[in-house]
Amino acid sequence: MATTVVTGRDLTLTIASTNYDAQATSATLSNEHTIETYQTLDGRAYKAIDDNWTFTVELLSDWGATSSLCEAMWAAAESSPNSTLAVSLTAATGAVFAFNVLPIFPSAGGTAPGAQTQTWTFQVVGTPTETFS
Amino acid sequence: MTASTVEVSVRQAIATALASVSANVYSYVPETPITPAVCLIPDSPYFEITTIGRSTIDFKVNLVITAMVSYSSNPAALDNLEKLIVSILAAIPAGYELSTVERPSVTQVGASNLLVADIRVSTYYTQTN
After folding, report:
1. Does a structural domain hold residue B70?
2. In what order do the strands lie in the sheet with A85-91?
3. ipTM for this model
């Protein structure tokens, strides 16, 4: 098959129906797959027992800006910490990952000469829904 | 709504902010700068794509602010250059990343010698329309 390269520029990031591509410098959905190993009389046996999904976003801080992601996330974490936010990650090649995350409080401040940035690691609730076209 | 440009949103914006500095400010490379002078030129890489997605054109713009003073007496020229650099740093508006001030060097422009130092700054630009 022909080589297909998908870059970060081919992604679209939507949190609670708002597109945040212009602020986000990185967005990664990842899974920690827990497999237990048993030593049996017949040899090693394996059993997948759990999955934990996390969603990590790196972005430029946008405190005070119109439609600020940092402010929206702070408000969500403060007022509804147990209510999930819908996230959609779409690759230009057609794959769509839809999932829900719990809000977290953003950080404030930064290094003297550089841009203020954020690194958020969200707990994904449930299992992401994938649509491979 | 008129489309934004790097010239208006970034280069002219910083040139306007530097107007308070006691020097001639150029938002381009002049053939014969009149010292003391401040010149805004592109750094390398000029544009860096730092955000994900293609729904907006958004990138980091790297610029060099070159501070130039006449070079006749070495200690006086260095003092003048340091004062000019400090006044430039104070005038740089919010939203600009400051990284380093490069080592001063002597540059010959036409018949005159200039003491020159580069200040590296960056900012973020989002295309509208």
Report:
1. yes
2. A18-19, A11-15, A85-91, A96-101, A117-131, A43-60, A24-40
3. 0.76
